[in-house]
Amino acid sequence: MQVARFNLAVWQTSKQESLFFIGREVIHAGEMGEPDNGILKLFEVSKVGEVIHEKTIWKPLYDGINLEDPRVLELPNENLIIGLTAVLRNKNGSPVPFPAIVQINSVSSWKKELPPFLIIDTFGPGKNLTPIDNNTFLFRPEALEYNHKILVFSLHSQVAKKLGDIEFPSNLPWANWRVGTTMPPLWLTPDEALFIIHGISKQNIEGTEKYIYSIGRAKLIRKKNHFQLTVAPDPILIPDNFLDSQGLPLVQELHPEIRRVIYSCGGIIKKDSNDILSLYVNVGDRTTFEVEFYLDELKKGLF
User: Fold this and answer.
1) 94-108: average pLDDT
2) CA distances, 233 to each of 41, 103, 151, 210, 302 (Å)
């Protein structure tokens, strides 16, 4: 593979059978402590999996800015809200991530460049900006006390206001170092959502400490602006799910020296699949697999 394509957000309009993706394309891995600089691409994929349309919608004009990890929420009017991580540079030249938001109107005709993005610096650096609705967002601040919490805020007239925190258990073996979001919560009722999350643990592998990513599931309950969370004890995907018949990884990690990654920024229930969630899983910061789950299985023990 000549390029890495991963962390794909996804949506499907009511008038088209195609799926639309926004994702990262990276040619070279970043140095230790540096982001993997790349571009954002838009893909339109037919019902049978053929790429109909492919376009670069954002590329950095300067070395100091990078956009990562889009998460797309389609609104009832088919407009889009996209949560992003904007990696900027501080006075010392070190990369610092901040949550960012893009709004797209008239999505049926939009296949152009990414509109201007709004950086949310009210709460300090952070990642995993995930929209819940057109005014409510989640993200994980970089502060250590947020390794097992995410912050909820509202945004009105470009003014961000904290609504609270959502706390995760810290004793899950697959997520004992850090927890974060994946795709936006999937609201099964106005107040209850299936929430696909990612967890990170640290493991010593052949004398090297590595970050091991997993994907799990939870139930999110919203009562006005207060949130409750129940997390299933076991993950639904781990890196060992992506091995070949000889027990070797299906793809080579972009950063094999420091982590084993499975991650997701997007999932969807397609028009013709009312009971199946298609989750688009980044494996190794290298490529993307579509993994299907029956909703009943994901809801088991939570709902």
Assistant:
1) 88
2) 35, 35, 22, 22, 10
For 61, 177, 213, 267, the CA distances from 10, given in Å and listed in that order, are 25, 28, 21, 6
Contact 112, 57 (CB under 8 A): yes
Question: Are the beta carbons of 45 and 5 closer than 8 angstroms?
Answer: no
Cα separation, 107 vs 233, whole angstroms = 38
Tens digit of each residue's pLDDT (9 = 90 or more) over 168-223: 999 999 999 999 999 999 999 999 999 999 999 999 988 889 999 999 999 999 99
- Structural contact between residues 290 and 32, judged by C-beta atoms closer than 8 angstroms: no
pTM, rounded to two decimals: 0.94
Q: What is the CATH number of domain 4-299?
A: 2.115.10.20
pLDDT of residue 108: 63
For 266-290, what is each residue's pLDDT tens digit? 999 998 888 999 999 999 999 999 9
Neighbours of 18 (CB within 10 A): 16
User: What pLDDT is stored for residue 33 in this prediction?
Assistant: 67
d(Cα 282, Cα 264) in Å, to the nearest integer? 6
- Does 109 score more than 70 pLDDT? no
